[in-house]
Amino acid sequence: MTVLDSRPETPGEPEGWHRSARRAHSTSSTHSTGGSGALITESGVSMAPVADVGAGRGPEWLDHWLAEHAADVIAWRRHIHAHPELARREYATTELVVGLLRSAGLRPSVLPGGTGVICDVGTGPTCVALRADMDALPLTEATGLPFSSTVDGAAHACGHDAHTTILLAAGLALASAADLPGRVRLIFQPAEEVMPGGALDVITAGGLEGVERIFGLHCDPRLPVGRLGTRVGAVTSAADLIELKLTSPGGHTSRPHLTADLVHALGTVITSLPALLSRRVDPRSGTVLVWGAVHAGEAANAVPQDGVLRGTLRTGDHEVWRQLEPLVRSTVEAMLTPTGVGFELDYRRGVPPVVCDPDSTYLLRAGAEAALGDGALTGTEQSSGGEDFGWYLEHVPGAFARLGVWSGDGAMRDLHQPTFVLDERALLAGVRVMVHTALTTLA
Predict the structure, then answer these.
(1) What whole-number distance in Å separates Cα of residue 254 and Cα of residue 376?
(2) In 36-159, which ranges are continuous DSSP H helix?
(3) SS3 state of residue 217
(4) Largest CA distance in the chain
């Protein structure tokens, strides 16, 4: 495994990052709860303790660890939430994770890029991986939480602060067990929010060497706390970017026959390409092309010389994904050749679909039921959104599930929105699901 064991100094980091990170990973239950048992934010705001919806379901060492450290788990998440870092800049979050893992006697390793962490817990030839993503989104938070983002233009509006905290706590809880039936690899991944994704950084560094299965969770604000959405097959879609640049000699709109009508050609592609693709690929694949940007010309009486069209092409079928680029290229050429308009197609492959195999999904479901009870499981729909967890599944089997984070009251605040919030009971539920899934797989 090619990794670095230290974090390089990086110019331009906000002053005080290291001090605040050290404060966070030296926090004890007494510091985070105060004398009354209420959680205290960094600004001194008191909030009620968070309930463990899976308490008493064991194993005994897990119940004990969560009872002792539940308030710490919440404090870690709030610290990460207040100090979000964008893709491949997750230096302070990496330092926080490394410090806490080392405090438990573990030997975490930082990825070569300086962000992201890999750490094994336990011993033995059998190894199961658990993955969390670490990066924030480039938007401004509007939740009004007392631990809101302190960084302009960055916010954990996709729940990656929760994912990181859940995996961190799961790893520390596993480290407290007297004996494990094998190894659990903790993968704290950078840069999920940018294509083609930080999962490739992990794979390139050897993060899947020796791994037999991999599992991941993602916050779902449509599910209540204590529920887990699973699915055999595609959970998310491949997501590719298309940019089509068109060129024409240009001319006067009164004489379109003397030039190549670029705007008409653009319109042809806008309307016909999605329709033609729907007839060239299996409709059960969930393939959809949607345009997001178009620009050509300024004057009403001038045929422009250039134009651009941008959109996303998504599919839940792995084989269809492999066929899409040549299919799009040949279809665009066939449409534009009669118009006389020149074109340049920039097709950028994004991430593959996340396709959960039956055996891994069964193990994840069994882990969730052991962690949260018989009523924990529910189905989940295939999303057209992209998720770079799919890259791991190109190498090893695994499963990906949606973790309920809705309180059950009030509005469901959607992901990737400035107002996204989650019920912090979901953190402890997520820890239990991760731990039990690992134990079930290793058994």
Answers:
(1) 67
(2) 60-82, 91-103
(3) strand
(4) 83
